[in-house]
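User: Modeling request: complex.
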Amino acid sequence: MIPQAVVPVLPDFTFVACILFILLVPLAAAGIALLNTGLGRSRSAAHSMMASLAVFAIAAVVFFFCGFAFAGFAGAPGHILRIAGKDWGWLGAQPFFLHGIRYDGSAPSLVALFQMLCVGLAAMIPLGAGADRWRLGACCASTALLAGITYPIFAHWVWGGGWLAQLGANYGIGRGFVDAGGSGTIQVVGGLTALAVAWILGSRRGKYAADGMPAAIPGHNAVLVLFGCLLALFGWFGLNSAGAILFAGADPRRCVLIAINTTLCAAAATLATALVTRLRFGKPDASLCANGWVGGLVASSAAAPFLAPAAAVLIGVVAGILVALSVEWFELRFRVDDPGGAVSVHAVCGIWGLLALGICARMPDGPLNGASGNGSQWLAQVVGIATLFGFVLPLTYGLNALLNRFFPQRVAAEGERQGLDLHELGAGAYPEFLTHTDDFLNR
Amino acid sequence: MIPQAVVPVLPDFTFVACILFILLVPLAAAGIALLNTGLGRSRSAAHSMMASLAVFAIAAVVFFFCGFAFAGFAGAPGHILRIAGKDWGWLGAQPFFLHGIRYDGSAPSLVALFQMLCVGLAAMIPLGAGADRWRLGACCASTALLAGITYPIFAHWVWGGGWLAQLGANYGIGRGFVDAGGSGTIQVVGGLTALAVAWILGSRRGKYAADGMPAAIPGHNAVLVLFGCLLALFGWFGLNSAGAILFAGADPRRCVLIAINTTLCAAAATLATALVTRLRFGKPDASLCANGWVGGLVASSAAAPFLAPAAAVLIGVVAGILVALSVEWFELRFRVDDPGGAVSVHAVCGIWGLLALGICARMPDGPLNGASGNGSQWLAQVVGIATLFGFVLPLTYGLNALLNRFFPQRVAAEGERQGLDLHELGAGAYPEFLTHTDDFLNR
Amino acid sequence: MIPQAVVPVLPDFTFVACILFILLVPLAAAGIALLNTGLGRSRSAAHSMMASLAVFAIAAVVFFFCGFAFAGFAGAPGHILRIAGKDWGWLGAQPFFLHGIRYDGSAPSLVALFQMLCVGLAAMIPLGAGADRWRLGACCASTALLAGITYPIFAHWVWGGGWLAQLGANYGIGRGFVDAGGSGTIQVVGGLTALAVAWILGSRRGKYAADGMPAAIPGHNAVLVLFGCLLALFGWFGLNSAGAILFAGADPRRCVLIAINTTLCAAAATLATALVTRLRFGKPDASLCANGWVGGLVASSAAAPFLAPAAAVLIGVVAGILVALSVEWFELRFRVDDPGGAVSVHAVCGIWGLLALGICARMPDGPLNGASGNGSQWLAQVVGIATLFGFVLPLTYGLNALLNRFFPQRVAAEGERQGLDLHELGAGAYPEFLTHTDDFLNR
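Assistant: Request completed. Predicted assembly structure:
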C-alpha cells in the first residue's frame, strides 16, 4: 500500500500547471515521429508512422501493467539493498496496474501520467535508428522490454528515489544525480537503445559501399522533418516544466525561466549546427539543423530550471556542434547506420545535458533529493553517466540481442527491397504519387 | 434573462484548468481533418481541408447565432413539457447571439466556448463519409442544420438539463443519461449524420462493381492519417477533461485519471485493431489502425472520469475490435461507402462508449444531474442510445434529405471524375507533383 | 536595476493561465511556417521551413541579447524625452541578456518570455513575401535587425509604457494606443517588413509578363496551407489571451470571451473571403480563404478582450473582404509580388484590427495605460497607425535596403531557376517524388 504520510498533495496552483504541462508531452512524441518519418524513405513512411503509434500504445499499456510498479516514486517504499550501513533503493515496489494511486491531486498520480507519456516518447527514439529495416512486430516487442524493464529501472534510480538520487543524502555527492526533465532518463535511455538496435540490425542495404564509404540516403520529406521540430519545441516546454516540478521541486513560477532556457538552447543549437555544416560542406544542411534543434532541446532538459539564460545559449551551442560532428563519427568511424540521427541527438546530447548540469547549473537553495550539498554535483552526474554506459547500454543491448535470437528484428531482404510499407502493411503511404521507384529498387 | 442564482462561478483553480482544456479541442478537430483528408483521394485533398475549415467556421457562427440558445445549460430556464406530473426540458431558451452571458468565470461562459468548438468537431465527422463527392456548398448547408438544430436539441437533453439528464431525478433511473466527454452528444450525433449523408450521397463512382463487390480505394496519404491520430489524442485530453468538469462535476484533480484512461483506451484500441486485421488479412492495416485509435478515443469520452484504468483498457480493446469489423460490415452488407470510416469510428464506438459507462463505470459518490441513484445506470444509457437511433438519426436524415431536394448535395458526375479540387476550387492540392491521374480518371 | 516597487507579482491563478497561454504561441508560428511553405513552390519548400526555424532561432537569441533591453516593460525606467512639460518614453533601458529579471511570478519575466516568442512569430511573416527568392543568410540578417531594432522600439512605445501608451495619461486621448494581442506590434510590424522586403527583392522570375500582367503561380501544397490555419487558431488563443492579461490588464476569466471572439473572427473572415472569391471568380479560392482565416485572426488580436461577439463577427467579415481584395491590389496595382499574401494578411488586417478597436470596442471600466478616458480612443489608434506608416515602414525599409547594399538579399538568378532548396541547402525537400520540373524550369 502507498503510505499516506509520504504522498504529498500538490497545491491547486501547482497541480493545474503541472497537469497541463504533462499533456503537452504527446506533441513532443508527435514531433519525433514526424522527424523520423521525414528522414526515412517514402516507401517506409506509413510503416514509420504506424510504428510510432504502435510503440506509443505498447509503451502506455506495458507501463500501466508493470512499468510504474518498478519505477515507483520518491518517498514510496521500494526494494532496498543495505550496503555499508546505507540503504540503497534498486527497484520500485508499487502494485501492478497503477493500483492504489489516488487521483486527488497527489504527486504520484501526476508522476504516473507523466511517465506513461514519457516512456512513449522514449520508445519512439529507437525508431529513428532502425528506420527502413526494423520489423513492426520487433519494434513492439523491443518497446515492451524498454517500457517494462530498462526504463523503469533507471527511472527508479533517478526519479523514484533510488540509489542515484540518494548519492547526495548517503554520501554527500552534490544533491545526488539530478535530471529534472529527463535528458538521461528519457533521452539517453532511448538513445542508447537506438544504438543497440542499430548495431543489432546492421546497416541498410546499399548504405556502405564495398570500400566502406557510406552513401548519403536523403530523407524523403524535409518539410515534415522541420515541422516536427516546431512541434517538438512545444512538447518540450511541457516535458521540461513538468519534470522540474515533479522531480526537482521547482516552483511553477520558475517555469518561465525553463521555457526561456528551452527556447534559447534549441535556437542556439540550430544556429551552431547551421554554422558548422556551412563551414564544412559549404551549405547548411537542413536535416542536420533539424537534428541540431532537437539536440538542443534534449540537452536543455536536465538543467533547464537551474540555468541562467546565457548558460542555456552556451549549452545549446555545444549541443549543436556535437550533433553536426557526431552524426558523421557514428556513420564513418563506428559504421552505425542511424537514418534519424537518434544516437547523436538523444544519446550524445542527452549525456552533454547531464554533464552540463554539473558544470553550469546554479542549484537551488533548498534541499533536493534530500541533500543540500553543493560543489561536487559534477561527480554525481558523472556517476549517473557511467551507470548509463556501464549498466543501461549492456542491459538494453542484451535484451534486444536476446529478442533478436528468438524473434529476428530485421525484415527479410526482400522486404527491404520492396519497402516496409508494402511488405509489412500491404499498402504504400502515398499510393497516388509517382516516386523514383526504380532508382531505389536497384540499389 | 439568466437568473443569477443558478449561474455558478467556478473556483479560480477549476476555471483555469477548464479553459485551457477547452482550448485544446481545435487540435482534435485538426486531427480529424487530417485523417479525413489523408483517407481521401489526392485530387480532392484541398477540397477536404477547405471543407473542414468551412464547416468549422459555419458551425461556430451558427452556434453563436442560435445553437447555444437552443442548447442552453443546466440550471437555466428552458422550454418545459409537463407530463404525468413531471417537468421535462425539451429545448433551451437562452437569448440568441450569446446575449446575456457573463464572462466572469461563470460556467455558462465556458459551456458556450466549449460547445462552440465541439460542434465544429462534430461537423467535421460527416466529411469523412462524404469524401470525394460532397459539394462544398452542401457541406456548409448541412453543417448549418447540424449546428443550428440537431446538435443543440440533443445537447440540451444531455448537457443542458433536458429530459435525458432528468431521467435520474424524475424517475430514479441511475443519475440520468450521463455522457461526460461527448461520446454521444458530439461523436454519435456526428457519426449518425455521417451515415445519413453517406446514404443520401450514394457510393463513389467505381466503388462497387456490377456484382456488388466493393473495390478498395486507398487513402492518398497515410502519414497525414497517422499524424492526425497523435494530434487527436492531444485534443481529446482537452475534450474529455473539460466535458467532465463542466457536465459531470468532476474535480480537476480527477483529470489525471481522465488523461490516463484516454491514453490507455486509444492505445488498447489500436493494438486490438492491429491484431484483428493481422489475423484476418495477414498484415496489420494502417488505415484501420488509425481508425481504431480514434475509435478508442471516442469510446473513452463518455466514462473517462469514472473508470479504473483497467476498465479503460478493456473498453479500448472492444472499440478496436468493433472498428476492425464494422468498417467491413458497413461496406459489404449495408453498402455504405464511407471512405473515412466515420460511421464505424464515431457512431459505433460512440454508442459502445455510452453503453460501457452503464457497464463499467464507478459513479462518483455525490449527486450528478440532481440524482444519486445507482444500479440502473445502464438503463439510462440505453434510453439515451435509443433516442439517438429513434430521434436523432431520423431527424438528421430528414433534414439532409430535405436539403438534398432543394440543393443537391452530390457533385455532378463530371466533377467526381475530374476531382473535387479542380471542379469546385479551380486548383489542385498538389499542382507540382505527378500523380497517377490516368489510372484514376478511367475508373 | 529593476526597482522592486513597480514589478507586480501576478496572482497564482493569473500566472498559471498566463504562462500556459504564452506556451501556445510557437504553434501560431508553426502554422504560419506551414502556410508560407505550402503557398511557395516545392523546389523551395525545405528552404522555407529551414528559414522559419532559422529566423525563429535568430529572433530568440537577438531578443535575449538586446531586444528585451530596448523593449522594456511598463513601469520600468526607460529613456525619456521631456517635451512641452510631459515625459515621453522612447526606448527601454533594461540590462542586456535578460539580466536582473526575477523568475518569481513577476510580470516582467512573463513579458520577456512572451515577447521572445512573439518576435519569432513576427520574423516569420516576411518569409511569406520573400518566398522562392530570399537568401537564407539575408533572412537571418534581416531578422536580427527586426528583433534587435524595429520590433523592440515599437513594442516599447506600445507595450513598454512608451509614448504611444502614454497618449491617454499625457493628453487624454482615450487610454492611449491600445493593442492587446499584437495586431500592430507583431502583425503590422511583421507585415510592413514583408512589404519592404518584397519591394527590395523585386518580383519572382516569370511572375510578370512583358505587358505587366501577373501570372498565377500556385502554392505547391494546399493541405499544408489549410492545416496551418487550424494550428494558427490554437496559437492565437494563446497570443490574444496572454497579450490581454499582460498588456491590457485583462482578468483571466475574460479569456473565455477572447477565445470566442478569436474563433468567430476567423470563422467570419473565412466565410467572407469564400463568398467574395466565389462571386468574383465563380469558385471559392482555397489559398485566399486560408489567408482570410489568418487575416481574421490578425484583426481579432488588438481588441479581442473588449468586443461583443457580434462585433467580432463584423470585424472578421471586413477582414475577410480586405484580404480577398487587397491581395489583388498589391499584385496588380502596386506590383508587389507576395506569394504568401503576408502584406495583405498581416499589415492590412492588422491595421484594420487596430482601427476596429477604436470603433467597436467597449473599453473596460478601470484605467488602462494609466488613463480612463473614453471617447477619443479612435484618435489614439489613428496616431498609432500613422506611426506605423510614418516611422516603422521607413525604418524597416531603410534597414533592409542598407543590408541589401552590403549583403545582397536576393538569390542569384541561377539559384532561383534551380530552386532555393538545391541552390542554398544542397538537397530538395522531396527527393523521391516526381515533380513537374521542366514546366517550371522553362519559365
